[in-house]
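User: Can you recover a sequence for this backbone? Please restate the input before giving your answer.

Assistant: Of course. Working from this structure:
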């Protein structure tokens, strides 16, 4: 009975989101929160953790955990779309806006793209303009709670308007670039940009 009710609720919410134009083509709604990543869940040591901004910046920056976690914080309410076809709606992310972080940085004029770097060599790329948009957030919290390890604790990037492989968990830094270079999944057949609403799933 409980299962039946759950799937009814799911279908009803899915219809609602489709009508609202929030369900991208080829996606279906999940009420759960799947865990998806390459490799293992890294350990977090606040003593050694740091966040690096490097590449095409006037001065590279390294922030220890204490400093990063004390940057001004805000909230973003956003949907999440994974290229494996699930979408999760109305996530409350709490953390540091990418644009807030960039107030500490003087970007060189030729910078156009960002490579986001994580633990264990995972990476993903996006244009600087998408990185700077006001819904791109380095999240420390989800729905009011600290992120759990498998969802990216202590810090993950969230880029709501692109497929979720760009929402890099266990993020450790960003690199400013003058050209568009592919990150981990982009080198392995996924689209270089990844707009869910035009189904930019794979590279062409
Ligand atoms: N570091 C890292 N971040 C990652 C991944 C990964 O493999 N490693 N997978 C991405 C993919 S494909 C998705 S769909 C989302 C899933 O986030 P979730 O596990 O919190 O649902 O994380 C993204 N961020
Ligand atoms: Mo994904």
């Amino acid at each position: 009975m409980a299962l039946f009710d759950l799937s009814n609720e799911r279908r009803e919410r899915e219809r609602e989101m489709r009508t609202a134009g929030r369900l991208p083509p080829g996606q279906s709604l999940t009420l759960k929160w799947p865990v998806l990543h390459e490799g293992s869940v890294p350990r977090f040591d606040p003593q050694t953790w740091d966040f690096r901004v490097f590449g095409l910046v006037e001065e590279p920056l390294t922030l220890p955990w204490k400093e990063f976690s004390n940057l001004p914080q805000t909230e973003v309410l956003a949907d999440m779309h994974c290229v494996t076809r699930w979408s999760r709606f109305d996530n409350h992310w709490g953390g540091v806006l990418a644009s807030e972080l960039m107030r500490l940085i003087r970007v060189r004029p030729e910078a156009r793209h960002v490579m986001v770097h994580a633990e264990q060599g995972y990476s993903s790329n996006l244009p600087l303009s998408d990185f700077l948009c006001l819904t791109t957030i380095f999240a420390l919290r989800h729905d009011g709670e600290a992120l759990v390890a498998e969802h990216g604790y202590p810090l993950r990037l969230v880029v709501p308007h692109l497929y979720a492989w760009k929402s890099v968990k266990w993020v450790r830094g960003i690199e400013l670039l003058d050209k568009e270079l592919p990150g981990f999944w982009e080198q392995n057949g996924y689209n270089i940009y990844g707009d869910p609403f035009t189904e930019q799933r794979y590279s062409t």
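That completes the design. The two ends are 45 Å apart (CA to CA).
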